[in-house]
Amino acid sequence: MQTLEFDNRFIRELPGDPDTSVRPRQVTGACWSPVQPTPVAAPRLIAYSPEVAAALGLTAADVRDPRFAEVFAGNALLPGMAPWAACYGGHQFGNWAGQLGDGRAISLGEALGADGNRHELQLKGAGPTPYSRMADGRAVLRSSLREFLCSEAMHHLGVPTTRALSLVLTGEEVVRDMFYDGHPRAEPGAIVCRVAPSFIRLGNFELFAARGERDLLARLVDFTIRRDFPELDPEAPDCIARWFEEVCVRTARLIAHWMRVGFVHGVMNTDNLSILGLTIDYGPYGWLEDVDPNWTPNTTDAHGRRYAFGRQPEIGQWNLLCLARALASLVEDPEPLRAALERYVEVYSDEYRRMHAAKLGLREITETDVVLVQQLYRLMQQAEVDFTLAFRALADVDPAHPSPAPLESAFYREDLRARHADAWQDWLDDYAARIRQDALPAAERRESMASVNPRYVLRNWLAQQAIDQAEQGDYTMVGELMEVLRRPYDDQPGREAFAARRPEWARHRAGCSMLSCSS
Ligand code: AMP
Ligand code: MG
Questions:
Q1: CA–CA separation, 246 vs 412, rounded Å?
Q2: Residue whose CA is at the smallest distance from ligand 1 atom 22
Q3: Is the pTM value of this prediction over 0.90?
């Protein structure tokens, strides 16, 4: 562990806050504040990602060393670490919220990994910072486990994401009122060490623009391009427009992936969107079970449904529009920014089509196929069909004799299955005809479908079961889920239970279909 090398460019090259206290305040003229993690009572490592450890160059012996839990609980620093909290703002639920900042995230440093990449190490829940406002800077086991498991699962699904190195229990309790309804309870505290090349969000740029801190904004843009977008020429006159276009392209691809795997972020505020196009800030996210474009796991958003599954592509563009507005003062001609926002729509729709061609096992997708896809979604919604199971089962449809039999286990309700049986048969007949026309060899078709339609995702009720057990001190299921979700596209005999549709008990259970921002 002592061999980890740090190169903290963010704090070296960008202006910091001279105040070292954690007094809640507005921080101006600075991109970050120096801050120390607050030590916890009894750090205990309960899970870690061997892949992330290896990327950093940490060995199994490093992880077993008691100092590992100390460092990743915020009780000790390694040489070269220089902790900070970043200053950013954001639009929350469509409204400008002003300064937000890392209220409970503390970056330890930018490690130069054994894999040759830069990895910023960031503790979530390591105590107060100047951006904590009235809150405690802590995180509970329930939400930390959800972030830890899901970010690793997303990586293995091939979805761009921040990663997670470790999950440490703090040995302290944290009080949360989960549904903000006057029922606070003490929960076990935990800290995740998350890892990404950069944790810069759209909101970092927005804050400086909103305050008229144009020089700071220009410096942050230049820094981001130089450190995180080495493929761009920072001296080129149209560099900012090209960079913004790249951010649009990455965000479009990211959201197409979310739509491919049935992931609902839940809180797509501009402070929760990464400038690198990574999935970031796992809060009240969820996985689509029965297909419903209006579904959101986030009870805080139950009224407006702004961040529901089907609205994610549109909200992605809205967020990028906020970023474009923030950048406008830096460019002479705003036209290329507008063009980049249009490019977002193009890239998203190309990616969506490409991914759905693969999901259906077609070589490419035509206008008629788009109708076929729309009909499929409508049918899945009307008949309450499980998204993940249904797409996976399509590979088993026999093009010569199509029948709904392979889809049987995807239906949530027998009455709806019976009611829509004829419509399904019609759709399957059209689909089978289309596959026959495509004439992709059967094995190739199955293989390509299995590589985009996962068998295993972190189903909401599975995560909740792992949490229930972990809160009782049993981490067996955490380990099992990590194992299964490491190979989400492989059939794993004996692990069918992890691919099963939501059981009835989970339909309305808190933590399964209903989550809040309280974490
Ligand atoms: P989120 O909705 O989780 O992205 O959080 C929005 C803002 O609230 C961010 O600035 C967070 O740092 C801050 N925040 C959330 N929870 C806490 C907490 N327990 N303590 C301090 N700040 C928090
Ligand atoms: Mg956030």
A1: 41
A2: 103
A3: yes
